[in-house]
Specification:
Helix content: 55-70%
Order of helices and strands: HHHHHHHHH
Shape: elongated
Number of helices: 9
Distance between the termini: 137 Å
Number of strands: 0
Radius of gyration: 46 Å
Amino acid sequence: MPATSYNRGPSSLPRKQTIPTELHILRPDPTLDTPIDSQSNHPNTNDLLSDYAAEPPNLDPKSSEPSTRRSRKRYEGLKRWFSILKLFSQIATTLFTGSMFGIMVYVNLKFYTTRNHIKEGRTPWPKSGTKVWPSIMLLAATCITLCTSTIILFNYCYNFKKLKQSWRLTLFLYTVHIASWIVISVVYRVEKGLHGNNDDLWGWSCSTQAKNIQKLFDGVVDFRSLCAAQSASWYVSIIEFVVRIMITIVLYVINRKQGGEQDLIDGVDGAAVTLLQHTL
């Protein structure tokens, strides 16, 4: 029996079926909307969570620093204008009331120094008696306002930060000032020549009776200058509170731009308490 040869050549060995070792990645269908390959622009949920854990969102307030800086700059600019207008208002009040005070001192002083001066059996003033309380009222009002305005003005100049006091206190002070001067100006004007009597200082100085006796009292009383002075004093009082009203409106607009509407609404109730605290 012939020996079996196991030394077969390669051609004689049975072929083994080879298994491919390469991993074929399925390519997505280009007609699909969402790609599924590893280079997709839409990361999966795990990627998002890992990215969030690695880099949390930026909650630093410095990210809004430019807008905050602009807002603060605008706010500081409005506060500066608020202070400048309040200072201007105080200066105007001091000048107006100072001029009125000087006029009323001159008028009352002229009356009290000449009321007993007699020529041809009469004084320069009405025979039935002179009504002086309207002039005294205006003199007292101008004196009080001048003193308070001067003190406040010096206080502002000494401590400029006080100009930035709360809007509710400013509103309270301005409202009281305007209301008081409206009442004083109206009463002073109504009492001039009331009922045609001309027995007050202003009414008598501008009356025809005073003109008729002017030559008799030349060198004693100049009724023409007294009439002009008291008329000017009344007009100045009108200008003063009109200017204060205009400034108050402008300050109100500035305060609204500062976002102080709620302070304005709630401020009037506690204004008197704030005034006492500010004074003390």
